[in-house]
Inverse folding.
């Protein structure tokens, strides 16, 4: 058994991080690489061999035998191809080598990953390129130890085929525009600006043996059938409740594995639904936070497997109880350590903060359709607008303090005061009084200001956070760019610039105040009010996808070099394909389970019951109850069989549609409803058939017996 280590010793032990590089690299090489990482300067290829050799030696000391370019294709998960460090010699032996060229460039097959038409099937070449801003790490499994090098993935002709490349481009765009703005406001000491992100990850844990008896969970990640148990989440007793020993053991190992990888796993607790939990990290640079979240999801699955559990990351594993999201906490930070979303004690006096805040409000209002698209997955369609997650309507929650400041600026042209929190007195002498925050929080808001950051609450639990952050970074860069264009027209000193900044703040808040909403986002009244304000209500993924290729979106993304039009069109095709394929798999799984498991089980129980009725009748006993039950089962079995036939034919029809966008819409509009029509009588039958005769574990078994 390995020696137990403290958290401080454990943290980052499998990461080729700054302290390791400082210790192992020559000073000049370290300084050169550090400049690229911190300031975004071009990577000096001359240092690659030195870095590669030290990285290899460090990895070998950790027990690694192979390395991989770890990348994030448009599948939504990560990919890796392992190469050994060996190189043959003339005497039949091998040397352990790893060159700068191998560090910088890899060449996986690009034809088998989603490309949306960017690559033909016969055009196989693609490249992975080292992302030195995200540190290499060691991935340990019971069977292998691999050096993983985070990389971007692009086609032979240069188009981005991954999630990382657009994210890095969007971070660069926001950096340039935010730094430009700060220089105009007199902050010449700022060299660069970064986005900082902390994604909260929700997940379910179920027993592995029970999971393996559920084909729907195996094939789709969610239950396609299942009647609600007598108790769900009504009592609110699971939320922040005592963590069971088995779950605590999982969390302990998950923390340790995460800490080794440098993931700052910080907060863990039970979530609202039974068997649901959450883990939240400390903030990290946008790029690193994205890599870490992908690693975290992988680590959750691996640790759960080792402990006889299954980790469900689907947005809605169980109908009738809360699903899982991923709250994307986003802020903007300068290289000098200043959080640009920190309002200070008197936000009405903080002109820089108010200008940036108003630009973000403008960005969200103008590009609400893109933000909605960025949180779109087939699974998230089950959550958004379902009164358990933010509504599908994009709005911004600012809280009482900032809403009051905005109101002053819009109505009077200036803000002269800021609300402050009162003392919170508990009424118990031994408990301390303390000052409340100036405003409460709002869990129904999709985009909420929470102190010194915005919390984008719509993101789905399975998603790469690259997608929402690419959009968020780019739309804010666009708004800041327009502000800078206006400020650069000012013919005067800094005071004149600040006066113009004040006028721009007022104008943006006046023009875009419609998107600010502090009330109950779950209410039907808000849906009507949002419609009156002209805010879009995009209810599904298939409705959201086209936002990527509107003239407005293409112009903006191309302006900042985040996406070309061809890259956007490819992603639209991929998203439609992913939706259609997801629902097709769910439809086929529904048919498979219904035909091969549920119908035979019900017919067998039906026969047993009929035989029982015959025996009882022969003895002259009253069989009214048994016959009534038999009739109810027969009626629902007929409905089930009819619904199976309709789903079967509509799925075949969907599969024959050639245009991918039309196919996705047909799956959404027709096939999905047919699946629900199969489920309805099946779930009723579950409540009529004896538990020991039902062919799969129930909801109660899955969510309470963990």
């Amino acid at each position: 058994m390995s020696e137990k280590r403290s958290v401080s010793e454990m943290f980052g032990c499998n990461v080729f991080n700054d302290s390791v590089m400082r210790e192992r690299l020559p000073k000049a090489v370290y300084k050169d690489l550090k400049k690229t990482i911190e300031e975004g300067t071009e990577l000096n290829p001359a240092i690659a061999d030195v870095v590669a050799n030290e990285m290899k030696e460090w990895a070998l000391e950790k027990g690694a035998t192979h390395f991989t370019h770890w990348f994030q294709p448009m599948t939504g998960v990560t990919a890796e191809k392992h190469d050994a460090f060996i190189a043959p010699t003339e005497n039949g032996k091998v040397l352990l080598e790893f060159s700068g060229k191998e560090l910088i460039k890899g060449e996986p097959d690009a034809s088998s990953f989603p490309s949306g038409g960017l690559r033909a099937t016969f055009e196989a070449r693609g490249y992975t390129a080292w992302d030195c801003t995200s540190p290499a790490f060691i991935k340990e499994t019971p069977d292998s130890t691999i050096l993983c090098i985070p990389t971007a993935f692009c086609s032979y002709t240069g188009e981005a085929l991954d999630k990382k490349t657009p994210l890095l481009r969007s971070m660069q765009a926001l950096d340039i525009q935010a730094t430009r703005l700060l220089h105009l406001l007199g902050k010449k000491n700022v060299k660069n600006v970064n986005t900082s992100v902390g994604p909260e990850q929700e997940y379910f844990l179920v027993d592995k043996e029970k999971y393996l008896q559920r084909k729907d969970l195996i094939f789709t990640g969610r239950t396609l059938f299942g009647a609600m148990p007598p108790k769900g989440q009504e009592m609110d007793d699971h939320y922040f409740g005592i963590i069971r020993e088995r779950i605590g053991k999982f969390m302990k190992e998950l923390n340790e594995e995460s800490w080794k990888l440098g993931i700052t796993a910080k907060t863990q607790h039970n979530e609202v639904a039974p068997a649901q939990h959450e883990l939240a990290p400390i903030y990290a640079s946008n790029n690193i936070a994205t890599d870490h979240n992908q690693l975290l999801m992988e680590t959750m699955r691996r640790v759960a497997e080792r402990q006889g559990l299954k980790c469900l990351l689907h947005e809605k594993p169980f109908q009738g109880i809360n699903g899982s999201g991923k709250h994307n906490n986003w802020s903007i930070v300068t290289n000098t350590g200043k959080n640009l979303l920190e309002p200070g004690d008197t936000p009405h006096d903080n002109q820089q903060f108010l200008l940036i805040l108003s630009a973000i409000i403008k960005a969200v209002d103008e590009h609400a359709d893109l933000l909605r698209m960025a949180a779109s997955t087939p699974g998230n369609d089950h959550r958004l607008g379902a009164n358990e997650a933010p509504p599908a309507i994009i709005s911004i929650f600012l809280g009482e303090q900032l809403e009051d400041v905005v109101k002053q600026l819009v109505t009077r042209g200036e803000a002269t005061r800021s609300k402050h929190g009162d003392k919170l007195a508990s009424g118990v002498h031994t408990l301390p009084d303390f000052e409340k925050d100036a405003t409460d929080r709002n869990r129904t808001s999709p985009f909420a200001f929470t102190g010194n950051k915005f919390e984008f609450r719509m993101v789905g639990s399975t998603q790469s956070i690259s997608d929402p952050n690419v959009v968020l970074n780019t739309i804010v860069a666009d708004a800041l760019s327009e502000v800078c264009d206006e400020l650069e027209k000012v013919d005067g000193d800094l005071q004149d610039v600040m006066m113009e900044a004040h006028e721009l703040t007022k104008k943006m808040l006046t023009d875009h105040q419609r998107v600010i909403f502090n009330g109950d986002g779950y209410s039907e009244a808000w849906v009507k009010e949002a419609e009156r304000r002209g805010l879009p209500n995009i209810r599904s993924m298939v409705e959201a996808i086209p936002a990527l290729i509107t003239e407005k979106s293409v112009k903006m993304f191309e302006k900042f070099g985040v996406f070309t039009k061809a890259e956007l069109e490819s992603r639209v095709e991929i998203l439609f394909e992913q939706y259609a394929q997801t629902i097709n798999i769910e439809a086929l799984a529904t048919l498979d389970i219904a035909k091969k498991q549920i119908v035979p089980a019900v017919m067998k129980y039906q026969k047993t019951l009929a035989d029982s009725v015959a025996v009882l009748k022969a003895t002259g006993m009253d069989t009214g109850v048994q016959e009534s039950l038999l009739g109810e089962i027969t009626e629902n079995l007929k409905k089930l069989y009819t619904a199976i036939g309709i789903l079967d034919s509509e799925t075949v029809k969907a599969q024959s549609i050639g245009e991918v966008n039309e196919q996705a819409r047909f799956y959404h509009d027709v096939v999905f409803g047919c699946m629900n029509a199969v489920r309805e009588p099946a779930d009723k039958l579950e409540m009529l058939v004896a538990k020991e005769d039902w062919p799969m574990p129930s909801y109660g078994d899955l969510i309470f017996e963990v």
Observations:
- The chain has a mean pLDDT of 92.
- The first helix runs from residue 7 to 10.
